[in-house]
Amino acid sequence: MKFLRSVREEMKLVTWPSRKQLRHDSLVVIETAILFAVMFFVMDTAIQLLINLVIR
Asked: How does the protein associate with the membrane (predicted)?
């Protein structure tokens, strides 16, 4: 019970982000994930083409 009371008291001290800040941060995460996915796709394709040129 002491632990649960401590958790409740700590949760009162938490500063939650605003809806605007949460939306902004989520978009940054999504954009970064897409950027890395595209970057890895391009790198993988380039390496695959180079390997195919060396093998042939």
From this structure: Single-pass membrane protein
Return the sign of the alpha-carbon dihedral for residues 16, 19, 25, 30: positive
Q: Residue 13's pLDDT is what? A: 93
Question: What letters, b where the CB count within 10 A reaches 16 and e where it falls short, cover 18-40?
Answer: eeeeeeeeeeeeeeeeeeeeeee
Please state, in angstroms and rounded to a whole number, the distance separating the CA atoms of residues 22 and 30: 12
- Note the pTM of the prediction, 2 decimals: 0.69
* 21 vs 50: CA distance, rounded Å: 43
Query: Angle at Cα 16 formed by Cα 2 and Cα 33, nearest 5°?
Result: 115
